[in-house]
Automatic annotation (TrEMBL):
Similarity field: Belongs to the UPF0111 family.
Protein name: Uncharacterized protein
InterPro entries listed in its UniProt record: DUF47, PhoU-like_sf, Put_Phosphate_transp_reg
Pfam families: PhoU_div (PF01865)
Length: 214
């Protein structure tokens, strides 16, 4: 364990990771609600993620304050804070994507509905794996690589679904306006960004793990 002398930090990190994971699951359901036309549920889930994002910011600041105030793990402090800040970008992305959906209200095309729902599910899986990898970083570093492999796998799957949506939107004749085709491409890219952010964290975590093993 990295925090043998500070159980409060350990508890806060676990709470922080729980929030990231919970936000990704809510995000997946929110996208499904949007494409199913359940806007009341969508709005409720958007607010849930907003609260989780705010709470996570507060937890992250508490962890940072404690690490410096109590002079904990000076050799790994920068990596730990870097990891938490990168994970915070993941929950920020979840929130931002839902806000853009609520403002721009992209049209729902039945021909693309299942693809968007699948894309959000795969993106959420990438977050699930980066949370598991982060837990392993604090508890058992030998298990980090197996989760990182899964993050990269889901990110690649998200890329493939994103391309599939773009091809359907631009090659098909069910969307007449070019602006609406572009809108579909834009939102596919936004959802896929969640998997991209997870992969960015994975790349950093890979380096942090190597440093801890030396």
């Amino acid at each position: 364990m990295l925090f043998n002398r500070a159980k409060s930090v350990e508890a806060n990190i676990e709470k922080f990771l729980e929030n990231i994971l919970k936000a990704s699951l809510i995000f997946e359901q929110a996208i499904k609600d949007y494409f199913d036309g359940n806007m009341e549920n969508f709005d409720m889930r958007k607010e849930e993620i907003s609260k989780l994002e705010s709470e996570s910011d507060s937890i992250r600041r508490d962890i940072k304050h404690t690490l410096y105030k109590e002079l904990l793990i000076p050799e790994s402090r920068g990596d730990v804070l870097g990891l938490l800040e990168s994970l915070d970008d993941v929950i920020d992305t979840s929130q931002n994507v839902l806000v853009r959906f609520s403002i721009e209200k992209p049209k729902v095309w039945n021909q693309l509905k299942d693809d968007f729902i699948e894309l959000s599910a795969v993106a959420a899986k990438s977050v699930e794996e980066i949370v598991s990898a982060s837990r392993a970083f604090f508890r058992e570093t030998t298990k980090v690589p197996e989760h990182l492999v899964k993050v990269h796998f889901h990110e690649h799957e998200a890329d493939k679904i994103e391309v599939r949506i773009m091809k359907k939107a631009f090659d098909g004749d069910f969307i007449e306006k070019f602006s609406e085709k572009v809108h579909m491409r834009y939102f596919a890219e936004r959802i896929s960004l969640l998997a991209d952010e997870s992969e960015t964290v994975a790349d950093k975590l890979d380096i942090y793990t190597i440093k801890r093993s030396i």
